[in-house]
């Protein structure tokens, strides 16, 4: 939904795709190959949020949907304006199955301060209470101990993490939400943990690239075969 000018150092500019192009793309794909699952990431504009929410809503209950609420780049550049954030809450959160916010995103979505474990748990519970049936996988990479929190109808569970010293961390949020969707579609009984394990090893096995935060190693499972 957006062309970004970026490197390992950061995002310097972004150019949103027109909403009608996004809708035409979704319709074209749907006519050819019905989705088994949908992962939503950067949406760039309020108009794109509207288009995606309408499309996903038409498939509600038939396709698993994971939302990675990308609001800002790791280098600090805003990737969705205030109107877009409002529509994510009003139109998109009611029609997705999972949301995978980091601490900042969880705070924006709930209107709360979220900087430590207790606040993280309270915000996740508030989000689930507001949106019936919504499952939350809140990422704690910015906590002193990088534990993630899974909050579902089965209850809350902390997924224990370890700090991997690496500058190959570009795209970790996108990788986690994509891995979660893949595990869910494949029927993994512990999809959230499987996604966390995947991302941790993708960081650990990555070869440092560039002058900033390089990409994780998405292909590590293939390298081990």
Write the topology of this structure.
Elements: E1 2-7, E2 10-16, H1 19-32, E3 37-40, H2 46-57, E4 64-67, H3 82-92, E5 98-99, H4 103-110, H5 117-130, E6 135-138, E7 148-152, E8 155-159, H6 172-185, H7 191-204, H8 220-223
Helix pairs in contact: 1-2, 2-3, 4-5, 6-7
What can you tell me about this protein's structure?
With 225 residues, the chain is an alpha/beta fold. It is built from eight helices and eight strands. A six-stranded mixed beta sheet has the order 3-4-5-6-7-8, with helices on both faces. Strands 1-2 form a two-stranded antiparallel ribbon. Helix 2 (46-57) links the parallel strand 3 and strand 4. Helix 1 runs parallel beside helix 2 and helix 6 crosses helix 7. The longest helix is centred in the first third of the chain and has 14 residues, at 19-32. The chain is globular, with a radius of gyration of 17 Å.
Keywords for this entry:
225 residues, six-stranded mixed β-sheet, two-stranded antiparallel sheet, globular
Low-confidence regions: none
Strand count, sense and closure of the main sheet? 6 strands, mixed
Tell me the β content. 15-25%
Sequence of secondary-structure elements: EEHEHEHEHHEEEHHH
In terms of structural class, how would the helical and strand content be classed?
Answer: alpha/beta
Number of separate helices: 8
Largest sheet: spatial strand order? 3-4-5-6-7-8
| Distance N to C terminus | 34 Å
User: What is the CA-atom radius of gyration, in angstroms?
Assistant: 17 Å
Which range best describes the helical content: under 10%, 10-25%, 25-40%, 40-55%, 55-70% or over 70%? 40-55%
SS elements, strand count: 8
Mean pLDDT across the residues is 94
Overall form: globular
């Amino acid at each position: 939904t957006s062309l970004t000018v970026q490197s390992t150092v950061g995002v310097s500019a972004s150019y949103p795709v027109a909403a009608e192009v996004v809708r035409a793309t979704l319709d074209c794909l749907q006519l050819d190959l019905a989705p088994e699952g949908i992962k939503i990431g950067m949406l760039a504009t309020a108009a794109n949020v509207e288009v995606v929410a309408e499309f996903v809503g038409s498939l509600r209950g038939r396709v698993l949907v994971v939302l990675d609420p990308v609001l800002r780049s790791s280098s600090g550049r805003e990737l969705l304006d205030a109107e877009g954030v409002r529509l994510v809450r009003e139109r998109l959160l009611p029609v997705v199955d999972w949301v995978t916010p980091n601490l900042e995103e969880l705070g924006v979505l709930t209107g709360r301060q979220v900087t430590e474990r207790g606040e993280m748990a309270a915000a996740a519970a508030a989000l689930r209470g507001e949106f019936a049936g919504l499952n939350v996988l809140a990422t704690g990479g910015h906590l002193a101990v990088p534990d993630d929190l899974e909050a579902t109808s089965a209850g809350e569970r902390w997924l224990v993490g370890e700090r991997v010293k690496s500058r190959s961390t570009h795209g970790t949020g996108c990788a986690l939400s994509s891995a979660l969707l893949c595990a869910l579609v494949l029927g993994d009984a512990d999809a959230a943990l499987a996604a966390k394990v995947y991302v941790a090893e993708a960081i650990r096995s990555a070869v440092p690239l560039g002058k900033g935060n390089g990409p994780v190693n998405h292909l590590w499972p293939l390298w081990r075969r």
